[in-house]
Amino acid sequence: VDRGEGKYYGVDFSAGSKLYATVMNPPKLLQFDISGNGPVNKQSIPLKQTTPVNLGSLQAAPDGKIYVARENQPALGFITYPDSVGAKVRYADDSLTLQLSGRRSGLGLVNFNQSSLLRVGFSYLSTSCLGITFTAPPIEFDNKTYAWDFGDGTKSTLENPQHTYAAPGNYVVTVRITTNCFCRESQGQILVPGAPTPGSIGASQPLCAGGTPAPLTSTAPAGEGTGQYTYQWQSSPDNATWADISGANAPGYAPGALTVTTYFRRLVTSGFCAPRTPTASVAITVLPALVAGSIAADQTVCVGLDVAPLTSSAPATGGTGTFAYQWQASVDNTTWTSIAGATGETFAPGTLTVTTFFRRLVSSGPCAGLSNTVTITVSPALAAGSIAADQTLCASGAPAPLTSTAPAAGGTGTIAYQWESSADNATWTAISGATGLTYAPGQLVATTYFRRRASAAGACAPAVSNVVTITVAPTLTAGTAGTDQTLCPGATPAALNRGTAPTGGTGSYTYQWESSTDNATWTAIAGATGPDYAPSPLTVTTYFRRRVISGPCDPVYSPTVTLTVLPALAAGT
Fold first, then answer.
1. Fewest CB atoms within 10 Å of the CB: 174, 200, 316, 429?
2. 232 lies in which domain range?
């Protein structure tokens, strides 16, 4: 009709000599006016398709319309006014009034029931290793013949043939169906599946003995084959002898805890012809159990003192054989903190102010372990307390006991005491047996200094108290208090002077004059507290002495002075 328009399918005439033709791919409806003697007038009829489909055979009907087959659609199209020109023919693409009662239109004659009568698209199914079963479309015409070309040089005339290919791949298959009414040919490309590509399952892992490896994931999926895959995971102790793992049929697999090196792989099956194709194996290498070794040693130190370095008393073993260390510290033996920069086999803590616990974290590849815990006990600083009190005493006197005004405190455990003495407040000597909280010195003949040394278990240095001074004064002598006198009754004696001054003692003296009429019973003279004394007039012989006191020294007395009162003189006659 007009070769430039494409591939024609159906033609029909209107009563007024209008020729209609359908064109496929893309669908067109052409009108040719052949009623006159001049040139043929060609019009392209607007389709206004709601669904773009190919148009097939045309057939004029008694109602004056021309009906059009629409490929695989539930209704026909029709030309309302076939003798009009161009768009005036009013083509209806989807006639809702001419439904096909549940069937679908094909490209053939419009009064045929099924489109499949003239659409010869075939189907196929893999049924064996490289074997395909082909199925022709159902044709309701008589005297059907089939001509199959399987694309590999072999052919068949069966309606539904089976064919086995020599190798997997893509093949172009052609079927030609011939009947009394038509001859149609259909062609399509099919995939004959072969072995699948197994994909990959990730990388090998090192693992500590008894540990659980990370799941083995599908890092690259299976490919090729039919596109449908089944899986089976296997394990091996030597990468040579393999055993299926029961229930392990997913793309990924999570092994349980392992105690020995084990290899894993995944088998992939796809289609009839595909063997169980294995992935590359993955080794999970189980390392020897890591033994973290041990560290030493517990210590007790006084606050502010350096701690002896912590040593490695037993080295780490196992794992990869290469070890990394991280020291950790805790003040409660529960919450641990890594010590910045402490990554050696040993560690020097330095100075501590509180009791601290230490341990060493050892890692080797994926393995990790902890050493024993070392405790560094920090003792509080020892306070010596204080003693009392300074004293002054006379030579050979016994001082009062030295008391504890504040006991020693701090340190760890029981506090022990040791009293010390010194003659010069520089060189000190421990006093044998003087280990109590207080101390009672014996008689002293010279000034002596005392202190108390406190010590406690642990590493705290001993502490010494304040120094108490016991000053020993020289022996006190009273001196003399004048000379004897003889008086007449009622006479006033000469003053009793000091004679010789007192010596010894503290050098500071207090006096008290005393008198007696019998040189046995003595009475202090009121107000007579000076170094000299002037007695009042006497009527009887009287004895006098001076009592001298100096500091802690016992009182001493001057020699007795006798004032003799003579009997009254009678002149006689």
1. 429
2. 196-287
